[in-house]
Amino acid sequence: MAGVITVAAVDDDRMLLDGLRVWLGGVPELRLVATAATVTELLGESGHELPHHSGELERTTPDVVLLDLLLRDGSTAADNIRRLLHTGSRVLVISTVPERSRIIEAVRAGAGGYLTKDNDLPTLVAAIKDIAAGRNAHSAELAFACAHDTSPARPRLSPRERQILLDYASGMTLKSAARRAGITVHTAKDYLDRVKAKYQQAGRPTYTKLDLARRVREDSLDGG
User: Fold this and answer.
1) How many whole angstroms separate alpha carbon 111 and alpha carbon 29?
2) What's CA 138's distance to the chain center, in Å?
3) Is 147 helix (H, G, I), strand (E, B) or coil?
4) What digits encode the pLDDT tens for the residues 95-108?
5) What are the backbone dihedrals phi and psi of residue 160, each rounded to the nearest 5 degrees, phi first?
6) I want to staple 147 with a disulfide (CB 3.0 to 4.6 A). Which of 169, 191, 207, 223 is the partner?
7) In the chain, helix, strand, coil percent, each to 5?
8) What is the mean pLDDT of residues 144-166?
9) Strands, sheet with 30-36, edge to edge from the N-terminal-most edge strand
10) Would you state the pLDDT for residue 146?
């Protein structure tokens, strides 16, 4: 099935997992291959194989894992993300938790993006496709967390980079932020990715523009 993105989901909310089966079942480009209540369960006792959870789900390493930020087994998001990345999967965190520090910690650990559970199917599908392609899954939630990060280290951002980040974090769509700046959406995405690159160069492990963007405020947003 060339071109199909394989997806797994880790969440201890069985209703949510059942809902994802229905949602993703109607998207031809995506295929749900496993679900589990914990990362340990997903990986299996060997730490490498994914368990069957229905007749349609199979053992494989998924392209993208949808991971709840907080699980009842007491595991930390950072550890879960690192374990999943080690298997070769990319990670999209999906949660109701709004705490900026937790979001930032997850992205610092390597998550490719963060979405709240109240997003619609098109938003989820777009984020999965971006992460599977090795791109950042941009969201207003991530940008907001980045813009209000108070960590001490931060690289210098250009006025335009700060502008796009702050507008996006304030709740604007990327299209609206781009229009306000008088640039294309593609260029606006490039600015967000440049923020990411600058933080990577500063020695901050980053898989999305969030890691750098969050330090925007410390470096440029606070200092003007």
Assistant:
1) 22
2) 8
3) helix
4) 886 667 777 777 77
5) -70, -40
6) 169
7) 45, 10, 40
8) 70
9) 30-36, 5-10, 64-67, 90-95, 113-116
10) 65
